[in-house]
Design goal:
The protein is an alpha+beta fold. Helices cover 18% and strands 28% of the residues. The longest helix has 38 residues, at 405-442. Bound molecules: 2-acetamido-2-deoxy-beta-D-glucopyranose (4 copies). One 2-acetamido-2-deoxy-beta-D-glucopyranose binds at residues 371, 373-374. The site of one 2-acetamido-2-deoxy-beta-D-glucopyranose has 3 residues, from loops. Keywords: Calcium, Disulfide bond, Glycoprotein, Lyase, Membrane, Metal-binding, Repeat, Signal, Transmembrane, Transmembrane helix, Zinc.
Length: 454
């Protein structure tokens, strides 16, 4: 129990001891390790979950014989749908991301090795057959993938700390590269394990950066930064803890972020980064791995959560955007273990989920939503919504200490108002303790055995 604490600074150690005393002292008092009623409360919680799941519509339906079992893949980190309605699967082949993959300073430990020699991008058609593959000799630890309206494919590689754009006619050589190869950082030219890309129909695009940074960047089509926001600590809606996936709701003028370790989907105006709304639910738990938006029935968010406890189920969930209510849930019969990404067709009739482990992709369908006119628009390359190019107005919440005054100030103000000096101090202590725990866990050096979660 105490083993993993040695790497944590003394101050935090003391705080943690206090916290443990406080909490455990009360919970696990004289009656033994588990207090009286512990198992009853587990049962109550279990019933509550079961009851909540029963109330949701179970849709879309899992397609059990999809894809063809002959298709082999490694850890599947990303899925995207191209403009012909085919699924792009981004996988790591024989490479895996585990505790030895990066140094404490986020440097990839396999520098000098060859990139993955197998095709890392598999293209599957509607019936689950492999119809194309590419992306060999380019990547080390694949992460996010998306396709823009012109058919360009955008990917991120967390080992390389880079973002790549490939045009439809040139799959061997990227047309655009952002970030510095193998060099983590937090600047205009460097990312740290960037996780995802989303491209507006006018060509402007967003990058989620990422595992070690806490920011969303917006670029013009040529790769010039026009806006960025996000901070690492505090309680404002601009705080991110692993912004893990992105989706666009262009009909609403929003970009939405799966803020993984804060267990929320946070949506921001895509023109100026203003916070608009946030979605979370006790049933989904504290970890949200990915999100995809479909403009059906007033807008729906398709979400996959991640493992948090033995008791909370890992599943797909659908949230109605307007009401913010959980309306549907879905999973293959055997459930999900470590879902990592999700994508939906524009009409919401087809949903695909990528799993890191087991190495799988799943297809789900909802025939009632099928809308040819919505699909055709995209497949025939017609812009669904006419997004005009907006000139940058302001940088909302700049990352980092240098020049981050506005963000930090606002958070400080919030804490101050919340409860005076004592409250602020207590909040800071708790935050530090939580942080220490989190970093111990994220570095993979914690004592708890955790499934692969990257
Ligand atoms: C998918 O590809 C396979 C093999 O090329 C082909 O037989 C099948 O008809 C295709 N399915 C669709 C829906 O295009
Ligand atoms: C799609 O449309 C855009 C402009 O609207 C055009 O530049 C692009 O070449 C088109 N792509 C295809 C595959 O037709
Ligand atoms: C973003 O634009 C909206 C609408 O014009 C405005 O209300 C909001 O204040 C803007 N936010 C920033 C940070 O400029
Ligand atoms: C299909 O989508 C279009 C928008 O592109 C919408 O106007 C139409 O009502 C939808 N049809 C159905 C049956 O939902």
């Amino acid at each position: 129990m105490y083993l993993f604490l040695f790497s944590i600074p003394n101050f935090v150690f003391v705080v943690l001891l206090c916290a443990i005393n406080c909490i455990c002292g009360r919970m696990f008092g004289e009656e033994g390790f588990y207090p009286a009623g512990y198992y009853d409360s587990q049962q109550v919680q279990y019933d509550r979950i079961k009851n909540a799941l029963t109330k949701l519509e179970h849709a879309p339906q899992w397609v059990s014989d999809w894809p063809s079992p002959s298709i082999k893949m490694g850890q599947v980190s990303g899925v995207a749908i191209d403009n012909m309605g085919r699924l792009l699967v981004f996988h790591r082949s024989r490479n895996v991301w585990d505790v030895n993959t990066f140094s404490d300073r986020d440097v990839y430990q396999g520098i000098g090795d060859d990139p993955i020699p197998d095709p890392t991008i598999l293209v599957l058609n509607d019936t689950g057959e492999l119809v194309d593959m590419w992306g060999q000799n380019l990547f080390f630890i694949p992460h996010g993938i998306t396709v823009d309206i012109e058919g360009n494919v955008w990917v991120t590689d967390v080992a390389l700390h880079q973002v790549f754009k490939f045009t439809p006619d040139q799959r061997q050589k990227p047309a655009l590269v952002l970030g510095e190869k193998f060099i983590p950082g937090n600047s205009d030219t460097r990312f740290c394990k960037p996780s995802a890309v989303a491209v507006l129909s006018n060509g402007d695009f967003f990058v989620a950066d990422g595992y070690c940074n806490h920011r969303i960047l917006k670029y013009s089509p040529d790769g010039t930064i026009i806006l960025q926001w996000g901070i690492g600590h505090g309680s404002s809606p601009f705080v991110f803890n692993v912004p893990h996936a992105l989706t666009l709701a262009e009909d609403r003028g929003l970009v939405c972020v799966a803020d993984r370790e804060r267990g929320r989907v946070a949506c921001f105006r895509h023109d100026n980064g203003t916070f608009q709304s946030s979605f979370s639910n006790w049933l989904m738990g504290g970890r949200i791995f990915s999100v995809a938006y479909a403009p059906v029935h007033g807008g729906r968010l398709y979400i996959v959560n991640g493992p948090v406890s033995q008791i909370l189920p890992v599943r797909g969930y659908v949230i109605d955007f307007t009401s913010g209510r959980l309306i549907q849930t879905f999973a293959p019969d055997a459930g999900l273990k470590n879902p990592h990404d999700i994508v939906t067709s524009p009409d919401g009739s087809k949903v695909y989920v990528a799993e890191l482990s087991p190495y799988r992709v799943y297809k789900f369908v909802d025939e009632t939503l099928k809308n040819e006119s919505l699909l055709e628009k995209v497949e025939k390359n017609v812009t669904v919504t006419s997004a005009t190019h907006v000139k940058p107005t302001a940088t909302v919440e700049v990352v980092g200490s240098g020049g981050g005054g506005a963000g930090a100030g606002r958070v400080a103000a919030l804490v101050g108002r919340a409860g005076g000096a004592a409250g602020a101090a207590a909040a800071a202590l708790l935050a530090l303790a939580a942080l220490a725990l989190r970093s111990a866990r994220n570095n993979g050096k914690g004592y708890e055995a955790e499934p692969l979660v990257h």
